[in-house]
Specification:
The structure is a single chain. This protein is an all-alpha fold and 190 residues long. It is 71% helix and 0% strand. The protein has eight helices and no strands. The chain has helices at 19-34, 41-48, 52-58, 62-87, 93-105, 112-124, 132-171, 178-188. Helix 1 packs across helix 4 (62-87), helix 4 (62-87) packs across helix 6 (112-124) and helix 7 (132-171) crosses helix 8 (178-188). The radius of gyration is 22 Å and the shape is elongated.
Amino acid sequence: MASRPEPRPRRPRRHDPGRRERIAEVAEELIAERGLEGLTHRAIAERADVSLSSTTYHFADREALIQAALERAADRFTAYVHQWARDHAADTPDELAEALADGVMECLGEGRTRAVVEFELYIAALRRPALREAAARLARESVEAMTPVVGPVGAACIPPVMNGLCLQVMTAPEPPTREQILAVIRQIFA
């Protein structure tokens, strides 16, 4: 009688309560680097140092990954815009314009990665109805946070102006200067 092969020792199951969040975070990183086209379960598994089955366990398909990334971006933006509004609640209109211009200029530096993710996902909502609520939340939260600072009309103007200026700064071969941006923003408060 042939002997049975020794059973392979079981790998201990690694308890990793932050795995889902890490996978979503890596999804954002990949979207920033490669766009939505570069977002795959395999790429996420490699970058997050998790098994491929872990990514599909937590996120059944690419759409679920995209949804999670957009929700993370919306949560982060919501916290940022509300804190920004609290920090600038007592500013004069000129100080507000200066601070908003600085926010646009951040898209060329430290804030570029965050802005790229937000815009990639915001644009994805054009073709993916399931993403529209999370995308709409970006503007809604901005208006809500800014209304006490600049009033309802000014607050409604800020999201489209800031989005347009940030996109222009990030994509123009010759980005506008801070002074040019400031001139546009000052029109909101004129």
